[in-house]
Amino acid sequence: MSSLSKHLGEPQPMEINGDQILIKPLTMEYMPDLMKIMKSFRGDPNNPQGAFENLGDEGLNALTKVINATLQKSFPDETDEIREQFGLKYLFPLIDKIFEINLDLENVKEDAKTKILERLKKAQEARDASQIPKVESS
């Protein structure tokens, strides 16, 4: 093992509906995209929709590129269509896992890391809440 390879990210397990899948890390090529995404997640962590207010076209393209690249690397035998549907459905847990695997967040200021993770969590909660069927009273 080389002196650098021992410090690289390893594939990490992720649970989706009771199934364990392995998500593989990306290469330096995607660092600018990861930074664009992080920069976009600024603002009030109590406003879940605000997590994407600053995203814009550039950030959205970066988010799409990073998720697609991660899924391509992690699941090369799946079709593009399956990977794209999976990426959309599990956007928030995927991006959380992608940051965990690819970035050494231990060296990021604690308050910045906390804000990023809070925004991702609140955005996921808002997404989950929006999918709960509403029961209308008669």
Structural account:
Helices cover 52% and strands 7% of the residues. It has helices at 31-40, 56-74, 80-89, 91-102, 110-130, and strands spanning 12-16, 19-23. It has a two-stranded antiparallel sheet with strand order 1-2. A hairpin with a 2-residue loop joins strand 1 and strand 2 (19-23). The longest helix has 21 residues, at 110-130. The chain is globular. The chain starts with 11 loop residues before the first strand and ends in an 8-residue tail after the last helix. 18% of the residues are buried. The model is unreliable at 133-138 (pLDDT under 50).
In short:
The chain is mainly α and 138 residues long.
* Rg calculated over all Cα atoms: 16 Å
Can you count the helices?
5
Helix-strand makeup class = mainly alpha
The share of residues in extended strands comes to 5-15%
Contiguous uncertain segments of 5+ residues: 133-138
Describe how the helices and strands are arranged.
Blueprint: E1 12-16, E2 19-23, H1 31-40, H2 56-74, H3 80-89, H4 91-102, H5 110-130
Characteristics of this structure?
mainly alpha; 5 helices; 138 residues; 52% helix; two-stranded antiparallel ribbon; disordered C terminus; 7% strand
